[in-house]
Amino acid sequence: MKRSRGPSVRGAWPLLLLPVQAALMVGLGRLVTGPAAGSPPLSEEGSASRDLVERRGEVGNAVSEFFSLLASTQVVIGVTLVCIVGLLVLPRRPLRTEALFLGASVAVQSAVFLLVTSFVDRPRPDVPHLDVAPPTSSFPSGHVGASVALYGGLAVIAVLRMRGPWRHAVAGALLLMPAAVALARMYRGMHYASDVVGGLINGTATLLIIGFALLYGRGSTPAPTRTERPVPVPATRTDDPVIVVRHPHGCPEQLAGRLDAVLRGHGYRDVHWIPTSAERACGTLAEELPAVRPALVVVCGGDGTLRACADVLAGTGTPLALVPCGTGNLFARNLGLPMDPVDALEASLAGDSFGIDVGRVRGDGLAPTRFTVMAGAGFDAAMVRDASPRLKSHMGWAAYVLSAVRHLNDPGVRLTVRIDGGRRRRRTARMVVIGNVGTLQGGLPLLPTARPDSGRLEVVLFDPQGPAGWFTAAGHLASRLLGRGGPAPTGAEAVGEPGGGTSGHHEAGGALEYFTATRIEVRCATPQPRELDGDAVRDGLRLTAEVEPGALRMYLPRAPGAPDAAEEAGARSDRAAPLPSVSGPTP
Predict the structure, then answer these.
(1) Which letter, b or e, does each residue of 378-403 get, where b requires 16 or more Cβ atoms within 10 Å of its Cβ?
(2) Helix or strand or coil: residue 272?
(3) In the prediction, which pLDDT does 217 show?
(4) Average pLDDT for residues 90-96, to the nearest whole number?
(5) How far is 211 from 209, CA to CA, in rounded Å?
(6) Structure pTM?
């Protein structure tokens, strides 16, 4: 049976009502500012605003400032991003449609608001204002509309996805937020009553249309079924030594004991355990490798631990088995490994050995090293660098989102990018990401054609222009998440460049520009934050990356990109055929 991977095209018909919504809002605004302006109750709105001014006090000023701030542009964007990431990361199965619903509701409401204000010009109340008046029409209230889209959208999700008596209390509290924002905006002299009513109508209409398009008819998400652990292979490797590199925090003693039992069940008796440290991310692996000559190296940690071990093992032929025990585990997720450490080890050992690409990177102040996931400079590196270690230990990847909000207004940087020795291209970008794999947390496909066995690296330049650019890029990536956006052209489809690279192509209104190559050189005009596999490294001007095809051998349940048994039927109809592997299973 074909699985549903998102809303169908047939179910998207309510989106055709969005132009009708915009037209009705423009008509309502023209009515408020035109024929109906001199008739009650609109003719009495001025005196109502003056009455509110006379009732101002310190407590009212403070409370109204708080609720007005909760609906400001910066807070709405920040809260929306945090909630979207939470919906994708925190549940056992990412709530992708709900995340798209929330982001689309906020973005569409903002788009309709801006359209209406370009056709309707209404001055703000002629009273002392407690806030700086933005240069937009007083009708409709953007703060109120945004609060309905955001907090009303969260209320809808709470009713649909929460369980128990608290869901209605949470939804009710969220639904009170727009009303509080409306009162605060009138109290502070920023809007007439009809303006906040217009904002309520605009936000509510947006929720209804987007909700019917994306959520209507969706039942509760079924609980994920636990796959059976693969049966261990016969114990035929009794004499083969194994090195296990263990991150002490990610892989505590109790888990280490369970993993040791799995190794022994697969016939490995001679196991050497190596702990990592802050100074040595792979412990003493480099020293132990020639002395022990292991048949297998098991890495128990996150992407940082894996990167350090891969830097030692690449090109040696010694296979690696990955046990995801970190915060993000992006490489494990992209390879389709189970997130349970014991399940991941058993599945890998029951599989086969495959050749996996790694990237080799260098730059000013950065010694040559390898990465397995991504290397980047700019916005993403600043987000990684400034994320609180304490929040990461408690919140995981959500801590990076909070850090990202602080850098939303960072300016772009002038840079040049050179693909496979071709000409240097001058660009301005917020960030540059070079990926060996392409999927981020929650299944977000930033680099949709990246494959860890393709023999190439994918590059994206990210440069959104203003809030509209951010929303456009977010909507574009979210549509990919549900399988509704077309994939980026592969190397064979793009226009050739000298040396085998491809010319860049733009998506999301120019906010995203993609390249694919075997070698990428990036040079920034000013020093930028840089990161490798989620670890911040020294700021610098240059970043040069090249691929080492099939340099790392890994035990995996299946070839990279191949669907498992549960996904195979849906994959036939919902995904394009995978690119051919550079290196297949070991004979």
Answers:
(1) bbbbbbbbebeeeebeebebbbbbbb
(2) strand
(3) 59
(4) 80
(5) 5
(6) 0.60
